[in-house]
Amino acid sequence: MRQAGRDGPRWSRRALLALPLAAQAPDPLAAVMASLRAVPASRATFVEEKQVPELDRPIVSRGTLAWRAPDRLEKRTLEPAPETFLVEGDRLVLERPQRGLRETIALDAAPEIRPLVEALRATLAGDIATLRQHHEVSFSGEVAQWRITLVPRSLRLRGAVQRITLEGRGGVLAVVETQGNDGRTRLMATPAP
Amino acid sequence: MRFWRVFAAIALLAAAFPLLLRHVELRSDITDFLPAATTDEAAFLLQELRMGAATRLLIAGIEGAAPEDLARISRSMAQRLVDDPRFALVSNGSAMVGDDEAALLFAHRYALSPAAMPEAFTEPALRAALEGVLDGLQSSAAPLVRRFAFADPTGAFLAMLRGWAGEGRIATENGVWMAPGPRALVLAQTRAAGMDTAAQQQAVAAIRDAFVQAAPTQGARLLLSGPGIFAAEAAATVRADVQLVSMLSFVLVGGFLFWRYRSPMMLAVVAVPLAAGTLAGLAVVGTVFGHVHGAALGFGMTMLGVVDDYPILLVTNRAPGEPLRDTARRIWPTLRLAVAAAVAGLAPMLASGFPGLVQLGLFAASGLVAAALTTRFLLPALLPPEGLPVRPLPERMAHALLRLPARRGAVLMLLALVAVGLAATGGPRLERDLAALSPVPEPVRALDGALRAQVGAPDVRVVLALRADSAEAALQGAERVAAALAGHATIDHAARYLPSAATQRARLAALPEDAAIAARIAAAREGLPFRATAFDPFLADIATARGQPPLTPADLAAAPLLAARIAPLLRPEGAAWRALLLPTEIRDMAALRAAATGSPGLLLVDIKGETEALLAANTTAAVRWAGIGALAVLLLLAGGRGLVGGARIALALGGALLLTFAALAALGEAITIFHLTAALLLAGVGMDYALFMSRSGDQDDEEAARALGAVITCMVTTLLTFGLLALCRTPVLHATGLTVTIGVACAFMLACALAPRRGDTTSSA
Fold this sequence. Notes:
- Chain A: This is Outer membrane lipoprotein carrier protein LolA.
- The complex is a heterodimer.
- By secondary structure, chain A is α+β, with helices and mostly antiparallel strands.
- Chain A has 5 helices and 11 strands, in the order H-H-E-E-E-E-E-E-H-H-E-E-H-E-E-E.
- Chain A starts with 9 loop residues before the first helix and ends with a strand.
- The A-B interface holds A 50, 52-57, 59, 61, 75, 77, 80-81, 83, 85, 89-91, 94, 96, 99, 104-106, 108-110, 160, 180, 182 and B 68, 71-72, 75, 94, 135, 137-143, 146, 150, 172-176, 529-531, 533-534.
């Protein structure tokens, strides 16, 4: 595994340490969640490909992801246009400095955004209860190479987003794919040093 | 039991009171106490005070918890209240346009949106718009952007909603309005008018309930302000004041009367004419008007406090061995004159034209007459012939007071000095602020001011109003006036939200032809990654919009938010329509005024100035009718007591009023309508004193002492009641109490000083 280098960051060593334990668990989903829970903080770079039906080529954006347990997730897009997307607790802050835009949203007040945020955040937190609260969860693969498929419970939301697929290895989230009316978005994360 | 008849009478009267109240409607509209409007501006202002949009606004502030908790409570409350039919509009900062309304507004966006200008559809503008769409699609907000952008790339719909969002005067945090503190803010507009006290109380209860149902976190507090709160707080304060005062004065007066008459019975005796007078006033006013104003009832009962004097005068003036019936017959001419003069003093109120004051005058006049008749004919029949024993006055005090007429010169000199002093300082200051009349306690008004400032409710100082035959004409008028005045102020008006049908048609007519817009989109798309068909929804919507009929006020059933927004700014008035324009950030008032004068049919109302003018007119009118009343009283006194005797009484009365207003001026009191009403009451009381004291000229010493004793008793009871009122905070109670307390003391001293000298024959009449 690439991220298991000797001078890799602390989180990856922890993730690996958690692996043997998790592997013995009878329920592989619970084991993956346990591995994810064992990661208190992580950083990664990402490449995101967004396919929009009205566009003849996908939009590609790049940036960094930063996770800190229990509930802080920051997605910082660097190109094509800088943007900060930060969720912490019940608060979502979207900032686009070039447009002079800064918006704060309460997730409690946004029943159509919350499931999308939790799909990512509850997974990183290894919080299966929250995940199940908003989605129907199915699992395939094993702890070393897993795939979780989420279908939103809210019918209203399912009208817009049909499925979210997350792939990873142990306590590391690698791919997030969202399938919706707005087209398909595929985010690929690479752990950062 | 020698007094059973008195108790029976009181029981009967007490039973009649609730019975009568059940048949009389009580109203509470403070504007009844403002004069009838003589100008269009004043008429408009009075109407706004009665039922304007501001009177229907309730503001809730939630504080004492973390912002997230406050936001949660705010949302929970708003959700609950939005479904409550008592509220026309509930907003807490979160966008709450329903799906149906959003669809309707979206369909009409090119007619309604100020952003749907021809220049928005030029090729360069479309190119910029398309680049904006692409940028939006790149962001995390892409799903939101995609929802509207391909049908509405120029952003007409979102620009329209942004224009409605209260111009962002309040900061939004966690999705709801949040003022520093933090304090979440919720606005609710009731359907019921602000003067509908019962409905307002219900609305307040609904909001409090919504707060409780929101399961507020520990420490979270709900602050509320609005007409319903005002009415409740005012009523509670007045009630608390009145309860305390009546309890204290009952004890004090009761104690005093017990000492004076060696029997607790006197309190019951005093109650009989008072109850009879109140019932008579209530019955007469109820019959004449069909309803009784709550304030007229309140003031009226206060004014009827005078009739306490009648039974005291009766019982105290009884000579030893004289049956009470003979005493009643003996003092009747004087009592009759006192009542007639008091009624004459009230009569001009009947002609004053203020509905509230007419009621008050009628209530007091009928009450006085009924109480006097009760004293003359009923009381002697109810009481044992020997009445009640009276404890004589301390001899030294009686002696000193009876000798006062010898110092008449000094007293007259003092009156002259005070008159000159008062004239030299320009007389007492008149109250110019309507708020000072409000019975609403100061802290409640301060909270209202703070909440209003945080909500960003504009401090409306100037209102422009225009009438038109139809809603469409009113909207066109509003557009015309707003355009004409645009340079001088920022103007809010109904056509900002719902343009006139003419404007909507003009906007639609200015939309480019199908082929032209398709060509421009194709050109603007050049080099951008949009597919050729990407903006087909936009082209289709433009084609549809062109064939749509305009949206009119009659179509707004499906658009409650838009309807609620224009309701305060556009409303039917009889067969016509009224549009209001609210200028804020006025840059040049003179220019605004000049420009407004140029628009025919437009009314510019300077709220503060107009309110002050109304109050001044109110006070001037009150002074004028007081003058007429004084003249009537003089004539009556001259008829009853001869020219000199009449002048003597008038001087005592006028002197008392003069000293009272001088004292009020010295205390820094600003004179309100309440002081003037109290002065009328005081004149009535003072007259009783002067009339009964001036009988003493042709009486023997013993009789004079009895008359003095009666008047002193009257004065002490009045002081014990009204002196306590002066300590109240409610403006009306304070003003009445203070005026009467000072005045009664002055009237008594003057009545003593100006009474005929012992053996002075000139006064015999």
